[in-house]
Amino acid sequence: MISVDDYRERITALLGTAPATSLPLAAAAGLVLAEDVLAGVSLPPFDNSAMDGYAVRAADVTTSPVTLPVADDIPAGRVDVGTLEPGTAHRIMTGAPLPPGADAVVMVEDTDRGTETVTITAEAREGAHIRRTGEDVVAGTVALPAGTVLGHSHLGLAAAVGLAEVRVHRLRVLIASTGTELIDAPAPLRHGQIYESNSVMLAAALRELGCEVDVVRSVVDDVEEFRKVIEPRLAGADLLVTSGGVSAGAYEVVKDALTGQGVEFAKVAMQPGGPQGSGRWQGVPVVTLPGNPVSVLVSFEAFLRPALLAALGHTDVSRHQVRARLTEEMSSPAGRRQFRRGVFAPSGREVTGVVGPRGGPGSHLLAAFTQANCLIVLPEDVTSAAVGDEVDVLLL
Ligand SMILES: Nc1nc2c(c(=O)[nH]1)N[C@H]1C(S)=C(S)[C@@H](COP(=O)(O)OP(=O)(O)OC[C@H]3O[C@@H](n4cnc5c(N)ncnc54)[C@H](O)[C@@H]3O)O[C@H]1N2
Ligand code: MOO
């Protein structure tokens, strides 16, 4: 009998690190970066306006009001912006490139909105409402380090620095349920048959972790048939996970087909989920789970999930653990780690912590967002918050 911890280590070692592949950004959510993402461009890529208004030289707008001729009109997307001559203004929109020669933007609200000439009623401060090249990300630097778990903000940043694809760890898993008794709904059940459910659970659980899955819904308990169905699909898989056919009886199709083929069958000191098998078949890692659905789920939690997460490049592979008081008595077999399904209700106060802002308030600072794990919420009636104040935090 092998311990749960030793078996988890065995499966983790068997799965190793999943191969890296390039995937379109839209297909990479939840996966882990296999390589640093280098910024192909700076963010912003050029000095641009943070406001709809007028680009000026601050030195021309030191008194109020000042009237200047409007020499050009610059919507966002213009690629041929000319120099701002002293004593003139260019009408400019948010995100439009700042004309050379301009060193400030005046908000349209502080003007008469003129198109031939504009009268400005506020002083222009040098640098005002200008978003500088590279303020968020500098071209050639690491925008996202290898190991990043790609959430939506990371994918947005990858897109913003010019990537169409990212290199991620990907695991293609072939899932196969075995059992002559298994039937797929909506076919009617005959006495002695059951509806297949393990492959559905495993496929969903593995997809949720970011695996690509190929599913063989049910294979009959026949060694020849098992080999015939599974072998041709092995080439496209980084891992084979089976359910059923591994215990002590006759007709143990998985055990019979894979014994002596590189897969070792053992008892793990846990309950449920005792009978297990693992190894390599034709070079492909194989994990054979017992057929009882709860055994499948417990096996997934006890060793498959952490091993898969590690293979996919995650460093946080454990479920969050808390302590709680038992509300009913329980018994457990000697020498086995029992995994009983239970209902946990939290008690006591929520844990609190400290929080600080990351990056400036600008709405274009995407990189800072990717480094954040929460949103600090200051309500409408708060204009300042001091060190030590309590604030609302939304965890991401
Ligand atoms: N003599 C012994 N018998 C059994 C032992 C043992 O040590 N000695 N171990 C028991 C334990 S514990 C388990 S767990 C099971 C494991 O058996 P198998 O892995 O061979 O699984 P099967 O016999 O194929 O199926 C078990 C059970 O689960 C149902 N099943 C199977 N696949 C599916 C599926 N895809 N969807 C839904 N349900 C499925 C199957 O019909 C059986 O009822 O062995 C014990 N026996
Ligand atoms: O070890 Mo089995 O998985 O209890 O039903």
TrEMBL record:
Pfam families: MoCF_biosynth (PF00994), MoeA_C (PF03454), MoeA_N (PF03453). Its cofactor is Mg(2+). Pathway: Cofactor biosynthesis; molybdopterin biosynthesis. The keyword DNA-binding does not apply. It catalyses: adenylyl-molybdopterin + molybdate = Mo-molybdopterin + AMP + H(+). SUPFAM superfamilies: MoeA C-terminal domain-like, MoeA N-terminal region -like, Molybdenum cofactor biosynthesis proteins. Keywords: Magnesium, Metal-binding, Molybdenum, Molybdenum cofactor biosynthesis, Transferase. It comes from the Bacteria. Residues 174-310 form the MoaB/Mog domain. Catalyzes the insertion of molybdate into adenylated molybdopterin with the concomitant release of AMP. Belongs to the MoeA family. This is Molybdopterin molybdenumtransferase. The lineage of its organism: Bacteria, Bacillati, Actinomycetota, Actinomycetes, Pseudonocardiales.
